[in-house]
Amino acid sequence: MIPRALKGVGPGLVAVLLSLAWAAPLLAQAEELRQQTLGRPYWHVFLAYAIALILIMGWVISIARRLRRVENRLQSHSD
């Protein structure tokens, strides 16, 4: 009989083994990619994506806070 704490280990172990099996071919591709050059650096594109992600995360946090405030008001009015 398998203890409850170990019941979810099987699928997790399979996922880890599959990811390790994919790691070797990906590492070989990474070596080929390292030798390629893109011409000029594209750091500004990565910076733009980082700024966009930060803005989106801030927006999501703002919505979550406002929603929590509304839920608290509704809960206090219903009591």
Brief rundown of the structure:
The protein is mostly helical. The chain contains 2 helices and no strands.
Write the topology of this structure.
Layout: H1 9-35, H2 43-78
**Cα end-to-end separation:** 47 Å
User: What is the molecular shape?
Assistant: flat
Mean pLDDT: 79
Structural class: mainly alpha
Structural Rg: 23 Å
Q: List SSEs in N-to-C order.
A: HH
Largest sheet: none
Oligomeric category: single chain
Note the total helix count: 2
Q: Work out the number of β strands.
A: 0
The amount of beta strand, in percent, is under 5%
Helix content: over 70%
Low-confidence stretches: none
What does this 3D model show about the protein?
The chain has 79 residues and is mainly alpha-helical. The chain has 2 helices and no strands. It has helices at 9-35, 43-78. The protein is flat and about 65 Å long. The mean pLDDT is 79.
Please name the defining characteristics of this protein.
79 residues; mainly alpha; 2 helices
